[in-house]
Amino acid sequence: MVKDEIIKKQINFTLKETNFENLGKKYKGKVRDVYTSDDKIFLIATDRQSAFDRNLANIPFKGQVLTQTSAFWFEKTKDIIPNHIIDIPDPNVVVCKKLKVFSVEMVIRGYITGVTSTAAWTAYSKGERNFCGNILPEGLKKNQKFEKPIITPTTKSDEHDEKISAEDIVRKGLMTQGQWNYISDKTFKLFQRGTQIAAENGLILVDTKYEFGYDDKGNIFLIDEIHTPDSSRFWIKGSYEEKFSKGEEPEYIDKEFLRLWFTEHCDPYKDETLPEAPEELVVELSRRYIRLYEMITSNEFKTEVGDVSGRIEKNLKEKGYL
Ligand SMILES: Nc1ncnc2c1ncn2[C@@H]1O[C@H](COP(=O)(O)OP(=O)(O)O)[C@@H](O)[C@H]1O
Ligand SMILES: [Mg+2]
């Protein structure tokens, strides 16, 4: 358990952005800074908290939680599919294989939920029944488990992700039929493994998304991140049934509550500037992310208060990357 004191101290040192020269061409993602060199990619997880396609706040230790949670899951799933990891030289940095990326996000859902305009529950409650080619039955309740998980892919774009069916993915040439068959099969298997390990640790893996890439020989790899709080939703398993049967919201430990705060205090889709998230909520989110890491991995989360960027630079130099 990391003390609130430590989290509060780290608020002054959150990693908002990096600017490393000589690491490669930089692309600033929503959450990660990506440096591309000749044959490698450096994924540096910052502490940025993204939602509604914008940055809501900076959360102490978040980049470290993301990197270390992802690292845990890559290790636990490497028998299902090889992944892009080469090295983890710092708690916030992954060195990975440079691959061509399928411009499809493989979203998979075990439950129907969500509050945003793009959420599955929002669409279902408005009467939509066809979800990327999956026809859903009548009478589902919010937060209900699907009989079988469904894959609802979206296209990857800088603006807004668009839902797409398997048929259209192949028709538009984003994947061949063979690649789709392989990747969708791996998506189900990864989600099954995630669900099982989460359950052993008192969690429900509600939904998540995977990204895949391929090398010059056409070998397919799992890339990006896996089963992190950014790419996934988790609920507490022990209280789910009771809450669900009473029509109450499950206990969740993800960013949903911060999103809720913003939807209640402004219009995060339209307003030009956003209000500053209250410190209480920032600390709470950090605490939840750390707790999630500790629940999932059964490891103690090791913190170091101070300048993250300086530490990364030191580690990258020591390992000869800078
Ligand atoms: N092995 C890889 N090869 C090439 N690109 C990758 C690899 N792993 C992840 N990426 C890309 O790096 C970016 C990660 O940063 P992120 O903050 O998620 O950005 P985005 O806003 O684009 O989602 C993503 O665009 C992801 O597709
Ligand atoms: Mg991303």
Structure characterization notes:
With 322 residues, the protein is an alpha+beta fold. It is built from nine helices and 17 strands. The protein has helices at residues 4-10, 62-77, 120-125, 166-171, 177-200, 240-245, 256-265, 279-297, 308-318; strands spanning 25-28, 32-36, 40-45, 48-51, 54-58, 85-90, 93-97, 100-101, 104-111, 130-131, 134-135, 145-151, 154-155, 162-163, 203-214, 220-223, 232-236. The strands form four sheets. Strands 8, 9, 12, 13, 14, 15, 16 and 17 form an eight-stranded antiparallel beta sheet that branches. A hairpin with a 2-residue loop joins strand 10 and strand 11 (134-135). Helix 2 (62-77) packs parallel to helix 8. The mean pLDDT is 95. Adenosine-5'-diphosphate is lined by residues 29-32, 34, 41, 43, 84, 96-99, 101, 211, 213, 223-224. Residues 29-30 line the site of magnesium ion (MG).
Q: Which small compounds were modeled alongside the protein?
A: adenosine-5'-diphosphate, magnesium ion
Calculate the mean pLDDT score and round it. 95
Find the count of extended strands (DSSP E, 2+ residues): 17
* CATH fold title of the domain at 4-100 and 253-318: Phosphorylase Kinase, domain 1
Rg over C-alpha atoms, rounded to the nearest angstrom: 19 Å
| Largest sheet, strands/sense/barrel | 8 strands, antiparallel
User: What is the H-and-E element order?
Assistant: HEEEEEHEEEEHEEEEEHHEEEHHHH
CATH superfamily of the domain at 4-100 and 253-318: Phosphorylase Kinase, domain 1
Q: So what's the CATH class of the domain at 4-100 and 253-318?
A: Alpha Beta
**Uncertain regions: pLDDT < 50 for 5+ in a row?**
none
Q: If helices are DSSP runs of H or I spanning 4 or more residues, what is the number of helices?
A: 9
The helix fraction, in percent, is 25-40%
- Supply the CATH architecture of the domain at 4-100 and 253-318: 2-Layer Sandwich
Q: Beta-strand level of the residues, as a percent range?
A: 25-35%
Mass-distribution shape: globular
